[in-house]
């Protein structure tokens, strides 16, 4: 066989992942970097689900989207957003195609992220310092959250029902907060323990003050001083913590990583690196389909509750849209398609042992499709049909999307789940698709700008 025909045979028969940066044109590279700037601004503005919801609504309103309420009439071309309890939002466009035949095109992502939540009776003083007690949210390595600057975000519902928004530690000049760790000089015993015991849950106390109240010589005066400041700033007293929802999140801003700026470091790429492309795809592009970008809450703790995707509100919304369009919801959902858009683990050569390289997502090789997730023999996984995977594959091929498939780690190395199975349970074809992340669930995670942009391009192909 000649070298030439061997090359032809290789091109025809062999599959090889492509690095998006490598195959992107100069113009496309420029787009990759430009798109990342909007994303970084979103990350800094939207560190909690409440903030992400608020920013999404603001961006939608700026583009002429209006609020939808159950029972409202809907017409082809309408641009709407539906807010659920200030913590999740569905942005949607009503398409011209027949809903019963065409169904919805759904991109489902989440806007909650692992963090440190403040307890209901949190404030105490010890050793001349005031602290807030916490209960962590989502799957974290607790030791990673010590000795870094933290910001406090959230809402306090005062006794009279007024809601106070809290956001401290983000602006230049703001104070930040802190969870302390032991100095190495005294850390011998600590360091010989298991990593999940190095710092335990009840040690994740957030340092919030150190100034005793003037002319107060009794113990408890640092706490009292903090309360006086909270009264002055927010009009709240200690009892108001009972109906507060406050979270400590890393105070870092999103930054480029690397001399070449190929990567982005930030808190909470999981899953805003999918939510932002989902949002901007639907906000900025028309479609003949009825397209929904779902930005939901509580994924990190099992998608439960009134704002998690298991809540009936999302099914109700889809049924209401169907009704408003004179369509039978059962027929609509039977023809609907969903990309469950959540992150996956990027292959990390520094921890190669937990990955199976052939089936891991490689950084910058594009957004990654996980046919299945789960653990121990695909348990609790959606495991999408090959037919649907084939259909999505054709959409991406037609649009020239650089993408890859992925499995989260070696068989039996661990595992994880997404919202995919809950959407699929509604009789909607669903597959996972999202950006590979380095150091997922750490206070600062890393993604590739190329993968972010690939994810966006994939959503546009799906909406076509
Ligand atoms: Mn996620
Ligand atoms: Mn997660």
Count of distinct structural domains? 2
**Which CATH C-level class of the largest domain is it?**
Alpha Beta
Instruction: State the helix count.
Output: 14
Number of strands: 21
The percent range for strand residues is 15-25%
* Low-confidence runs: none
Ligand types: manganese (II) ion
Percentage of residues assigned to helices: 25-40%
Nearest-integer average pLDDT: 96
Under CATH, the topology of the largest domain can be stated as Aminopeptidase
CATH architecture of the largest domain: 3-Layer(aba) Sandwich
For the largest beta sheet, what order do the strands appear in spatially?
1-2-3-14-4-15-19-17-18
CATH superfamily of the largest domain: Zn peptidases
Note the quaternary state here. Answer: single chain
Biggest sheet descriptor: 9 strands, mixed
End-to-end gap: 42 Å
Description:
With 464 residues, this protein is an alpha/beta fold. It folds into 2 domains: 3-113 and 267-463, Aminopeptidase; 115-250, Aminopeptidase i, Domain 2. The protein contains 14 helices and 21 strands. The protein has helices spanning 3-13, 20-23, 26-45, 49-62, 99-102, 188-191, 195-198, 221-234, 269-284, 312-324, 329-334, 386-399, 420-424, 449-463; strands at residues 66-67, 79-84, 88-93, 104-110, 115-126, 129-137, 150-157, 163-168, 178-179, 206-209, 244-250, 255-257, 263-266, 290-296, 337-340, 344-345, 367-370, 403-405, 429-434, 436-437, 445-448. The strands form 4 sheets. Strands 1-2-3-14-4-15-19-17-18 form a 9-stranded mixed beta sheet, sandwiched between helices. Strands 8-7-11-5-6-10-9 form a 7-stranded antiparallel beta sheet. A hairpin with a 5-residue loop joins strand 12 and strand 13. Helix 3 packs across helix 14 (449-463), helix 9 (269-284) packs across helix 14 (449-463) and helix 12 (386-399) packs across helix 14. The protein binds manganese (II) ion (2 copies). One manganese (II) ion binds next to helix 9. One manganese (II) ion is lined by residues 110, 270-271, 299, 342-343.
């Amino acid at each position: 066989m000649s070298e030439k025909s061997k090359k032809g045979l290789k091109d025809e028969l062999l599959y090889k992942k492509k690095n998006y940066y490598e195959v992107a044109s100069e113009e496309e590279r420029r787009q990759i970097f430009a798109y990342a700037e909007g994303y970084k601004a979103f990350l800094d503005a939207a560190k909690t689900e409440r903030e992400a919801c608020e920013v999404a609504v603001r961006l939608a309103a700026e583009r002429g989207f209006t609020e939808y309420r159950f029972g409202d009439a809907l017409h082809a071309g309408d641009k709407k957003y539906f807010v659920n309890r200030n913590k999740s939002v569905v942005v949607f466009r009503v398409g011209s195609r027949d809903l019963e035949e065409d169904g919805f095109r759904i991109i489902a992502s989440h806007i909650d992220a692992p963090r440190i939540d403040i307890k209901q009776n949190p404030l105490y003083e010890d050793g001349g310092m005031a602290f807030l007690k916490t209960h962590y949210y989502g799957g974290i390595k607790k030791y990673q959250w010590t000795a870094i600057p933290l910001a406090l975000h959230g809402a306090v519902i005062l006794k009279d029902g007024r809601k106070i928004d809290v956001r401290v530690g983000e602006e230049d000049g703001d104070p930040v907060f802190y969870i302390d760790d032991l100095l190495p000089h005294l850390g011998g015993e600590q360091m010989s323990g298991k990593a999940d015991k190095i710092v335990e849950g009840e040690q994740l106390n957030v340092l919030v003050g150190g100034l005793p109240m003037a002319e107060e010589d009794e113990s408890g005066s640092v706490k009292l001083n903090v309360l006086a400041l909270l009264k002055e700033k927010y009009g709240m007293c200690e009892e108001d913590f009972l109906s507060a929802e406050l979270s400590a999140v890393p105070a870092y801003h999103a930054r480029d990583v690397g001399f070449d700026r190929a990567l982005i470091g930030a808190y909470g790429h999981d899953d805003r690196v999918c939510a932002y492309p989902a949002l901007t795809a639907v906000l900025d592009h028309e479609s003949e389909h009825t397209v929904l970008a779902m930005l939901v809450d509580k994924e990190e703790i099992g998608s439960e509750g009134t704002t998690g995707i298991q809540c009936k509100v999302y099914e109700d919304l889809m049924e209401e849209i169907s009704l408003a369009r004179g369509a039978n919801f059962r027929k609509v959902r039977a023809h609907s398609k969903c990309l469950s858009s959540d992150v996956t683990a990027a292959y990390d050569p520094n921890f190669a042992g937990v990955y199976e390289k052939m089936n891991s997502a490689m950084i910058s090789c594009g957004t990654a499709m996980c046919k299945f997730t789960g653990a121990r023999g695909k348990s609790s996984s959606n495991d999408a049909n090959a037919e649907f995977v084939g259909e999505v594959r054709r959409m991406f091929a037609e649009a020239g999307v650089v993408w890859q498939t992925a499995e989260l780690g070696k068989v039996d190395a661990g595992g994880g789940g997404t919202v995919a199975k809950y959407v699929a349970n509604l009789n909607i074809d669903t597959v996972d698709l999202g950006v590979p992340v380095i150091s997922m669930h750490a206070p600062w995670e890393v993604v590739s700008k190329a993968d972010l942009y690939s994810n966006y391009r994939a959503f546009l192909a799906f909406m076509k």
